[in-house]
Specification:
Structural class: mainly alpha
Shape: globular
Order of helices and strands: HHHHHHH
Radius of gyration: 20 Å
Number of helices: 7
Oligomer: single chain
Largest sheet: none
Number of strands: 0
């Protein structure tokens, strides 16, 4: 048994004559795993700090509302973030943590309505954000037909992590997210291995590799492991990244022009938003080509 009880539970035998409903399998495109700013109290714009840099034009401390946050908790310059120097905002994704904390943990009562709850709300938000990211990866693994041998364990992990995200603020602040990730990561790794096993030929292993600024134009990386690789400013233009494992890869300013990322494992929208691409770059649904990419 792991620290968070991700153990095998006995299957219930249905009563004679009972209708057996199919098990609900989480999907990576589920609304619970996507940010819904309309149901959030602008938590990413308040709880998180940022410093003046190429990503932000000013300094802001944690717990201080961004100057662009409106009374309705919407961003006043959302359509012009990059033009105004807030490119850092365009590569952030809460994976649905904002609305969960706002509507479930704090039952729809905002930090403006209850100022005494503000500090706790700001502390809970990053915890739930990390849990939601882990849920996203787990759901992506469940979307892989070839990972069926670990689907039951993945589904159990998903259900238990999801239950944690719906617990009280006090319970959430006590969660050891690193320990939980340590339990789930072997399942994600096994799902990746099963999915990539179908790729013909020898797969390259660049797990955790420091490839900052590397010239990898046209690289044959189909089915490769790039888990946690540092790809900052690397040239991966025209590269074959189909079915490659990109979980946790740092893709800031990575050149993906003309590259093929169809079927890439654990690839997230924030990774694409942080990279550079063009109309030739291929990605799979539900991911979308960022609006700031070259035509």
């Amino acid at each position: 048994m792991g620290a968070w009880g991700l153990t095998r539970r006995p299957r219930r035998t249905p009563k004679p004559g009972a209708t057996v409903l199919p098990e609900r399998i989480p999907n990576a495109a589920h609304p619970d795993l996507r940010a819904d700013c309309g149901d959030c109290f602008g938590l990413c714009c308040v709880a998180l700090p940022f410093s003046r840099s190429s990503d932000f034009p000013v300094n802001k401390s944690a717990g201080t509302p961004c100057g662009n946050l409106r009374e309705d908790f919407r961003c006043g310059i959302h359509e012009r973030l990059r033009d105004k120097g807030y490119s850092g905002c365009t590569v952030f994704d809460c994976f649905g943590a904002g609305q969960k904390v706002s509507q479930i943990t704090f039952k729809g009562v905002s930090w403006r309505e209850e100022p005494d709850s503000a500090r706790t709300m700001y502390e809970v938000f990053p915890v739930v954000r990390r849990l939601q990211e882990l849920l996203k990866y787990t759901a992506q693994a469940l979307d892989l037909p070839s990972a069926r041998p670990v689907h039951r364990d993945l589904r159990r992990a998903y259900e238990q992590i999801d239950a944690l995200t719906r617990d009280t603020a006090q319970a959430l602040l006590a969660v050891d997210v690193d320990a939980l990730r340590g339990e789930v990561n072997p399942l994600l790794l096994r799902a990746s291995e099963l999915a990539r096993a179908a790729v013909p030929g020898r797969k390259k292993n660049h797990r955790g590799a420091h490839l900052i600024g590397s010239r990898l134009r046209g690289a044959k990386l189909r089915g490769a492991s790039l888990r946690g690789a540092l790809l900052v400013a690397a040239d991966l233009s025209d590269a074959d990244l189909r079915d490659a494992d990109l979980i946790g890869a740092d893709m800031r300013d990575t050149n993906l022009c003309g590259s093929d990322l169809r079927g890439a494992l654990f690839l997230t929208q924030p990774q694409l938003n942080a990279a550079r691409g063009d109309a030739r770059t291929k990605v799979s649904d539900p991911l979308r080509r960022p609006s700031h990419w070259a035509a």
